[in-house]
User: What shape does this take?
Amino acid sequence: MTGSLISTLEGRYYTDQGIFAQEQASIFEKMWFCAVRSSDLANPGDFRTVQVGRESVLIARDRNGGLNAFLNVCRHRGARICVDEAGSVKRAFQCPYHAWTYALDGKLIAAPNLTSMPDVDRVEYGLTKVHLREWLGYAWVCLADEPPSFEDDVLHAVTERLGSLDAIDGYEIDQLSVGKRIVYDVKANWKLIIENFMECYHCATIHPELTEVLPEFADGYAAQYYVGHGAEFGDEIKGFTVDGGEGFGKLAALEEDRDRKYYAITIKPQVFVNLVPDHVILHRMYPVAVDRTIVECDWLYAKEVVDTGRDVSRSVELFHRVNEQDFEACERCQPAMASRAYARGGVLVPSEHHIGGFHEWLVGKLDSAD
Ligand code: FES
Ligand code: FE
Assistant: This one.
């Protein structure tokens, strides 16, 4: 039996500032990062700021309807352009320090006395652009000069899990509306949250409502364990709601065989997607400190469900409870990561062995850091 047990990462991986800084540099600032829901920035001038690795990134909708991402740093003397998390500007961003003004596409358009400084090139001294790509109705950004392939880094996670990329199309995630968003401030390292999401060994212990809806979770095998496998609703269960009662009609373009099934996908390094017949739950993690992670969770429904004000509370309540149960478990582990008892790490039981793959991936990323 002991031969089939493998070790986790050592405790220091969850507490060491140096390792966290390395992760920021070689993972969050190198890979594609799911930053904002595109529909949150509906009109020209709407913006949102997010922390990606060690940088603040400003994402805004321009006058042509496109989204752009920039480093949130004034090119004059480096002041933060926007300190608010979200908001809207009329025509341009103006730095609060000396009033350099940038168009919504980042170009420098005005600066007091700039006419007397002909050398300042307005494109060259525009806001520093960050790569941006939209997918699933979210803006994904990448801080690398040469971004990795979106196909290899992001789309591959879906193919690997669902067996094909088409399998996610039926949910039409980009067309869905946000029915509810809850932001969780979790006092735990981001890897504890990923590891927790990847396994279901804990489901029987801490998720009574979820195991009622998805009885196979009580056996501890995560839906993510087998390619293409969806966890089946229990016989008495009518919908993915807190009491197993009726949800909404299945999403219009979804194949019949996905009705009554739950699928989960981890898109490294910071996104979890949960697919059920009538809605999608998408988590984005923002690791802000070695022991603190902000998690934004969106519950996405068919547009008419949200537009007609249908009551989504019973379906929201199910995964909200799951989130609270999971994050409480992660917060329970975080302080113990610094204990001598965990200096050499812990143990992965057989149903958690795929977490070993995540650890190998992580160590590989840190080893290949510049
Ligand atoms: Fe922004 Fe001077 S630092 S205008
Ligand atoms: Fe869980």
